[in-house]
Design goal:
It is a single chain. The protein is mainly alpha-helical and 407 residues long. The protein has one domain. The chain contains 16 helices and no strands. The longest helix is centred in the N-terminal third of the chain and has 38 residues.
Length: 407
């Protein structure tokens, strides 16, 4: 295992802090800056790059060119967009609650950056190292619901209010299967510590074997996604995460074809840009926590650590772009029904499948549990999914549908 990059970054940070040993107060401030400022700058840069990447990706899917005028290949387009947002007028409705109208984008952005701090970016690279980091990640993420509703309510606009109410219903509904999908991982790993969850996805006996082939696969085959409950849990988690981050096809709180722009209707200028940035940072945080829980985090062959985490996180973000460009937006009733009637029961059932897999592994060994888990455990989940699909199927109309025009 080669964590060279992670160790060098940690050594550089320790050396910088050590320069101020004679000034304890300054040393604390420097330590705080090293823990937060690089992370903030990196993710803000990733936000700018990802907007370009998404526009290029959607353009390719829709057979268009995308940004191509500002800079080489349009790479400076995010900078141009940022300047435009800074120069645009900030229009606030006269009857709005101006204090909460101002605080809403701030309350949405701050939890997004705090959530990023709980991600284990590498071996020892974590801005907020805590034994219960996963718990705090979900707790901080739930504040987004309040911020979005504040934006809708304070705008004094019926479309904004409707978008805020949709957001509350959607985020609360999908937060339950999101957390339940993570429960199976926490139960199997026996820890809420993000670094320990990553370590539990490494086959330690293979890593210490001295065999290069075993060391290579020992960094991959232990990922939870390769287990039946982990594969199903990843699907449930990712779908619920799309709804939590207001990504397509679950972007109903700001459905422009239905309610103009939802809770963003009365926002303009830099406030609108803050909402936009917070949404992308939240998407990165969700992709990062999915990487930690199901894809082995920073572990990987040859060069483990930060490079692997970045590759996995951006791969999941690329899937989000792909989904946005190919799937249509759901209706509100479909959105809510899918969460409560389909996703929630399967997420609960998956916890029992994970328990069955764990005890089968303890009693009969890893190979028998792996085979039995995929045959029995995944079979149970698939059968339950088909049964729930039939139960929730809309009743069909008898005969041919007839359309009548009103004269």
């Amino acid at each position: 295992m080669n964590n060279f990059i992670d160790y060098k970054l940690i050594e550089l940070g320790q050396w910088t802090v050590g320069l101020f040993n004679d000034y304890p107060v300054v040393q604390i401030l420097v330590h705080l800056l090293l823990a937060t400022l690089p992370l903030t700058l990196v993710f803000m840069g990733a936000f700018g790059f990802s907007t370009w990447l998404e526009r290029k990706g959607l353009a390719r899917i829709q057979n268009r060119l995308g940004p191509n005028r500002v800079g080489i290949f349009g790479l400076l387009q995010p900078l141009a967009d940022g300047i435009k947002m800074l120069l645009k007028e900030d229009i606030v409705p006269d009857r709005s609650d101006k204090l909460f109208h101002f605080l809403a984008p701030v309350m949405l952005m701050v939890p997004a950056f705090i959530a990023v701090g709980f991600l284990p970016l590498g071996d020892g690279l974590m801005a907020l190292p805590m034994d219960s980091a996963i718990l705090f990640f979900f707790a901080v993420g739930s504040l987004n619901t309040i911020a979005v509703f504040m934006a809708g309510w304070s705008s004094r606009n019926k479309y904004s209010l409707l978008g805020g109410m949709r957001a509350v219903a959607q985020m609360i509904s999908y937060e339950i299967p999101l957390v339940l999908s993570a429960v199976a991982v926490i139960m199997f790993s026996g820890s809420l510590n993000a670094q320990e969850i990553v370590a539990s996805q490494q086959i330690q006996s293979w890593l210490a074997s001295g065999n290069l082939v075993k060391e290579f696969f020992g960094q991959i085959l232990g990922w939870h996604i390769f287990k039946p409950w982990g594969f199903a849990g990843f699907i449930f988690f990712f779908v619920a995460a799309l709804a939590e981050a207001n990504r397509s096809p679950f972007d109903l709180p700001e459905a422009d074809s239905e309610i103009i722009a939802g809770h963003l209707t009365e926002y303009s200028g830099f406030k609108y840009a803050i909402f936009f940035m917070a949404e992308y940072i939240s998407a990165f945080a969700i992709a990062g926590i999915a990487t930690t829980l199901f894809l082995g985090g920073w572990s990987g062959p040859v060069i483990a650590g930060l490079p692997w985490f970045i590759i996995k996180m951006f791969s999941l973000f690329a899937v989000m772009i792909w989904i946005r460009g190919t799937l249509p937006r759901l209706r509100v009733d479909q959105l809510m029904g899918y969460a409560w009637k389909f996703l929630l029961p399967l997420a609960i059932l998956n916890i029992f499948v994970a328990g069955f897999y764990y005890f089968a592994e303890q009693q009969f060994g890893s190979l028998a549990a792996f085979i039995g888990g995929w045959v029995i455990g995944f079979g149970i989940l698939q059968t339950a999914a088909k049964g729930l699909s039939r139960l929730n199927k809309s009743p069909t109309l008898d005969g041919k549908r007839v359309y009548q025009l009103v004269e």
